[in-house]
């Protein structure tokens, strides 16, 4: 993957170093934190998204799950689910014009809609299975179990009123029965199949 240009001092931080699951002490860890902020953050910035990691910032609903879908050579996409006790579940879909592994390009597609309650239940079951709040959920500063080159990078962000967690994987790291892989498919369903429109995902 090509590194994105350095961030300016005025840009909001999407992924503070502490969200990756352990303190970034070594130079390798610090470099990975910087890479993730440039790579993932620039794509979300181009989508006109705001950081979810700042728990002091207001959010539209009690709970938010945001999926950033980053194929190497084709445009990045995002599906965001928002739900809570006092608001009906909604989704937002966005797609850029660039390439997920390189420059983001510009926002070219945006769709929002309501999520039927029946469609929300399998999503919540998978979130429970992933259990993003557990200390055993590896965010991704640790070296992956497999070496993965080209393909799709998955970045899930989980935000509640009081907590935030990010879990990132390359598609080659995910077993076919992985709850994270299944959740990607559920998010494609939420977005009426638009997520996989330009890039297949088994």
The CATH architecture term of the domain at 63-190 is 2-Layer Sandwich
Describe the sheet with the most strands. Answer: 6 strands, antiparallel
Distance separating the two termini = 22 Å
What is the CATH class name of the domain at 63-190?
Answer: Alpha Beta
Please state the CA-atom Rg, rounded to the nearest Å. 16 Å
Q: What fraction strand?
A: 15-25%
According to CATH, the fold-level topology of the domain at 63-190 is Mago nashi protein
DSSP summary: helix tally: 3
Q: What is the structural class?
A: alpha+beta
In the sheet with the most strands, the strands line up as: 4-3-2-1-5-6
Average pLDDT rating: 89
Helix content range: 10-25%
Number of beta-strand segments? 6
**Global morphology:** globular
Instruction: Give unreliable regions as ranges.
Output: 1-8
SSE ordering: HEEEEHEEH
Describe the structure.
- This protein has a domain of 128 residues: Mago nashi protein, CATH 3.30.1560.
- Helices cover 23% and strands 25% of the residues.
- The N terminus is likely disordered.
- It is an alpha+beta fold.
- The radius of gyration is 16 Å and the shape is globular.
- It has a 6-stranded antiparallel sheet, sandwiched between helices.
- Strand 1 and strand 2 form a beta hairpin.
- It is built from 3 helices and 6 strands; from the N terminus they run H-E-E-E-E-H-E-E-H.
């Amino acid at each position: 993957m090509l590194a994105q240009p350095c961030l300016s001092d005025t840009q909001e931080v999407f992924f503070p170093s502490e969200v990756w699951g352990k303190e970034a002490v070594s130079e390798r860890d610090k470099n990975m934190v910087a890479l993730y902020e440039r790579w993932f953050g620039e794509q979300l910035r181009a989508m006109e998204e705001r950081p979810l990691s700042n728990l002091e910032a207001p959010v539209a609903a009690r709970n938010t799950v945001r999926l950033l879908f980053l194929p190497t050579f084709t445009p990045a996409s995002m599906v965001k689910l928002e739900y809570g006790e006092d608001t009906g579940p909604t989704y937002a879909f966005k797609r850029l014009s660039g390439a997920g592994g390189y420059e983001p390009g510009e926002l070219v597609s945006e769709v929002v809609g309501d999520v039927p309650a029946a469609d929300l239940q399998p999503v919540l079951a998978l979130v429970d299975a992933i259990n993003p709040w557990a200390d055993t959920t590896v965010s991704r500063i640790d070296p992956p179990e497999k070496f993965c080159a080209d393909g799709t990078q998955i970045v899930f962000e989980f935000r509640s009123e009081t907590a935030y967690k990010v879990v990132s994987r390359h598609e080659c790291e995910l077993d076919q029965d992985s709850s994270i892989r299944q959740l990607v498919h559920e998010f494609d369903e939420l977005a009426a199949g638009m997520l996989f429109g330009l890039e297949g995902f088994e």
